[in-house]
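Throughout this chapter, every protein is written as a compact record of paired, labelled lines. The reader may check this reading against the record printed directly beneath this paragraph:
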Amino acid sequence: MRKCHYCDFVSFPTPTAEELELYIQALCREMKLVADRLMSGRSPVSTLYLGGGTPSLLSPTSLSKILKESREYFPWKGDIEVTLEANPGTVDLAKLRAFKDSGVNRLSLGAQSFNERLLKAMGRVHTSSDINDAVSTARKAGFTNLNLDLIYGLPGQDLETWEDTLEAAISLSPEHISIYCLELDERTPWGQEFLAGRLPLPGEDLVLAMYYAARAQLEAAGYRQYEISNFSRPGYECRHNIIYWENGFYLGLGVAAASHYRHCRWENPGNLEAYQEAVFSGRLPRQNLVNLSLREEMAETMFMGLRLISGVDLAAFYRRFKVDALEEYGASISKLKSLGLLKYNDGRLALTAKGLPLANVVFREFI
């Protein structure tokens, strides 16, 4: 409906019915191409995630078609986690009930903030009241697994405003809460404003205080931090994202989607016409294909796994690569432990509380 001032994702204005139908046809065609050419048989999947843009703008009929096709080409396991991203203000009871009937069992709402001034400044199309209504409606529709996305480090945001947003989110009792620090890309309106010196951002000390405040507030409310930016009630960790953090294989379908499969990484074109032309011509819409070396996969497994609070299971690392991580990265691990950024307990290597906000410093040691 509208692109937020900080968003650098590939996205397009709400399409006409004809444009949307053409895209859905292309997406379903890609599913068949991928299933036929990249997979041996119809391999079952344990998670499915519909995200990027605002997939909740789809009609129930369109979403049902996508999910039906996915089941044909990638059979669903019995306990599959199916997540749909949605923006408050784009859903109603009838639509959410239809989404749930189609197989969606986890809803991720892009709340971002409960402060009206900040929501308007970000370019969001919803209000805090819309968030409350969306959560209430989702519960009426039968959803028992809800996530709220929140952003901190926003222009004009102070610690009290952030704590108020956290309190408002907690009061709605979602099963999962994600907190993300604002990152600016120079191609976005806010990125341009920042480069021009017209966008005052909170200082590093304040941003760090916001992060620690979130950890304290959420954990006090019964949310367990299981990843740098993610908190959940016990048993409601996002299984789909854990696959990313454990550097597992996943297939990205659709325009601009990214994949990691069988030791290769690639992207789909970000240009809508190029994507559709490829699949309708019977070609896999792959570009920037990279065959990962053993060292690259090991490095990625280390620094992505360290995003998890439980850290990297070094026995699992050895089973996967037949390499002892403590020997392979001994110098870096010793250095980071001496700085108080890493800890080693019970066969797992993990970030310390001090290391969590300095994670990028740690990750660079494994690249």
In short: The mean pLDDT is 93.
